[in-house]
Amino acid sequence: LAERVAGRRSQLALGLDPDPARLWPEALAAADATGEPAERAASAVVAHCRALIDAAGGACVAAKLQLACFERLGAPGWEALETVAAHTREAGLLVLADGKRGDVPVTAAAYGEALVGGTSTPFGDVPGLRADAFTANPLLGADALAPLVTAARAAGAGVFVLVRTSNPGAAEFQDLPTGAGAAPAPLWERIAAQVAALGDGGEGLSDIGAVVGATAPEHLPRMRELMPRAIFLLPGVGAQGGRVEDLAPAFAPAASAALITISRGIALAHERDDGEPAEAARAEAERLRDAVWAISGGV
Amino acid sequence: LAERVAGRRSQLALGLDPDPARLWPEALAAADATGEPAERAASAVVAHCRALIDAAGGACVAAKLQLACFERLGAPGWEALETVAAHTREAGLLVLADGKRGDVPVTAAAYGEALVGGTSTPFGDVPGLRADAFTANPLLGADALAPLVTAARAAGAGVFVLVRTSNPGAAEFQDLPTGAGAAPAPLWERIAAQVAALGDGGEGLSDIGAVVGATAPEHLPRMRELMPRAIFLLPGVGAQGGRVEDLAPAFAPAASAALITISRGIALAHERDDGEPAEAARAEAERLRDAVWAISGGV
Questions:
Q1: Chain A residue with minimum CA distance to B21
Q2: Cα distance from A299 to chain B (closest Cα, Å)?
Q3: Following DSSP, what letter does each residue of A90-107 receive, concatenated?
Q4: How far is residue B116's CA from residue B212's CA, in Å, rounded to a whole number?
């Protein structure tokens, strides 16, 4: 990651959250002309994501694929997900699978097979999505995260654990003071300590990162204290109200210590500027890339 | 649900967690003879689940489909999921989609479309999985649960929110004492209060239920106090160590106030008894059905 960040002078992860009702016109035009609605919509989603990657990907180091947006199109949607992941790789971008999975250990192992590993079957091995990293929900505890970490490590991939999310309701449980006695700490600090403990124990940045909403930047210095080696994945800039200029503390250890994900801000840039979608997306991605690079201490 | 429970004198949810390496021999024999490994494995998974439903479904009121086990086979796996869901419905069983989804509101809405609703596209509407209920992870808070509840209610479906899970590590975060001051409560009690608040406000059982591990039955009386109208979905009996005879408090409000999910205990019953898989599954499901009915107060 550090090499890619330095080479592209970018810490942007392009969010791919395709909404079939808001695809670019060129994607609708490129969709399959016949077939079931799910198949036609999935082909349009592929065309949209491909055009978005081609337009804005040059200003990014990764793409974050939102699994929900593909799953809602059923099997054709999952096929579109695989096709978009392949195109992401071909464009030289890391594939981040954003599904926020979390389950009891035996099931967590199955998610690991789906996202970064593969499944042994009597008919031969079935490869998974081959993501470079994926997001995980820690509510079930360390034993449920362990199979995800094991699967990621075996594949040379990373895990981003939800520590504090970007939605307005995140405070409800994640900010609850926990721990009896004199030193209560919000739940997210307990999770952050777990993220640090799950790390690979090496030097430099860890393979276990943290999802940290850009909407509550006041927590970033404490997050860095608790997770000095974690890569932060920061959603919430733009549509959700987070501002790039508040995020400098995330980059304290290194210019590659955080990735900022932008979805609607880039894909729908043309709706604000009344321009051509691809041109508007490229311009906005380049503007954001430079703004992030400037506050990251990258040289 | 109450009618189905009374009609079948059963509160069992048949867990469908197909592992391609442990399918019944008859399913392997029925698999597609040609095609990619994923397609052949998916056809074997369908045959396995169909045989399991046909053998044990008569002793159950629902089937719980573990999404991870299908997703790991990619697009053919998702198609298998839809086929198995259809067969579940044909067998007169409720379809419980177990994916433990949870995400920021805009993405939660997409999961709602995938699981119980449908997606509007320029090519026509794409139906989702049409589950009768699904599991959800509450870590992101009430605003992130709201779109899932809205989608479920629009479809006449239910939501089971994770309150306390069945894995050994569940205690790590879910049992943390929370709240400053004189009256700390474990995190799961805060979540339980949220489940009660999300309920439909009617009388009788609510459309918002709770996932409550059968491995910590000592919490059941307090759970019932906090969530008097929630249907409890109880995993963890059998392979994970939970015992039917400890679960009576879950049924305090009504014989239909809880469902007990059994996966490996039924599907792999033949490995213990050295018998024919379908016969062993049927016998074990009937034995468990009767044992649960006896402690549930059903008449």
A1: A121
A2: 34
A3: HTT-EEEEEEEE---HHH
A4: 22
Determine how β-strand A118-119 pairs with β-strand A133-136: unpaired
CA distance B267 to B19: 10
Rounded distance between C-alpha atoms, residue A249 and residue A295, angstroms: 9
Neighbour count for residue B50 (Cβ, 10 Å) = 20
Q: 3-state SS of B140-178?
A: CCHHHHHHHHHHHHHCCCEEEEEEECCCHHHHHHHCCEE
Tell if the CB–CB gap between A41 and B78 is shorter than 8 Å.
no
Contact between A123 and B21 using a beta-carbon 8 Å cutoff = no
Cβ <8 Å between A74 and B72: no
**Which stretches within chain A are classed as H helix?**
2-8, 25-30, 37-56, 67-71, 74-90, 105-115, 142-154, 171-174, 187-198, 220-226, 264-267, 269-273, 277-296
Residue with the two structure tokens 């464009």: A91
For B65, the 3-state DSSP assignment is strand
Residue identified by tokens 């009891």 is: A104
Given the residues B48, B100, B101, B282, select the one marked as catalytic.
Answer: B100
Return per-residue pLDDT of chain B as tens, 299 residues: 888 998 999 999 999 999 999 999 999 999 999 999 999 999 999 999 999 999 999 999 999 999 999 999 999 999 999 999 999 999 999 999 999 999 999 999 999 999 999 999 999 999 999 999 999 999 999 999 999 999 999 999 999 999 999 999 999 999 999 987 667 899 999 999 999 999 987 888 999 999 999 999 999 999 999 999 999 999 999 888 899 999 999 999 999 999 999 999 999 999 987 789 999 999 999 999 999 999 998 76
Question: Rounded to an integer, what distance in angstroms lies between the CA atom of residue A241 and that of residue A218?
Answer: 14
Contact at CB, A126 and B172, closer than 8 angstroms: no
The answer to whether the CB atoms of B179 and A180 lie below 8 A apart is no
Q: Model ipTM?
A: 0.97
| A-B contacts at Cβ under 8 angstroms | 250
Residues of A in contact with B174 (CB under 8 A): 139-141
Active site residues of A: 100
pLDDT tens for residues A223-272? Answer: 999 999 999 999 999 888 899 999 999 999 999 999 999 999 999 999 98
Mutate to test the interface with B, among A45, A48, A83, A103 (most CBs of B within 10 A): A103
Exposed (0-12), middle (13-18) or buried (19+): which is B3, by Cβ within 10 Å? exposed
User: Strand A62-66 relative to strand A258-262: parallel, antiparallel, unpaired?
Assistant: unpaired
Q: Do B122 and A41 touch (CB under 8 A)?
A: yes
Testing the interface with A: which of B103, B198, B240 to mutate, by most A Cβ within 10 A? B103
Compute how many other C-beta atoms are within 10 angstroms of the C-beta atom of residue A272: 10
The β-bridge relationship of strands A185-186 and A177-178 is antiparallel
Residue among B52, B69, B43 at smallest CA distance from B277: B52
Q: How many helices (H) and strands (E) does chain A have?
A: 13, 12
pLDDT tens digit string along A8-37?
999 999 999 999 999 999 999 999 999 999
Whole-number Å distance between alpha carbons of A98 and A121: 26
Distance from CA of A225 to the nearest CA of B (A): 21
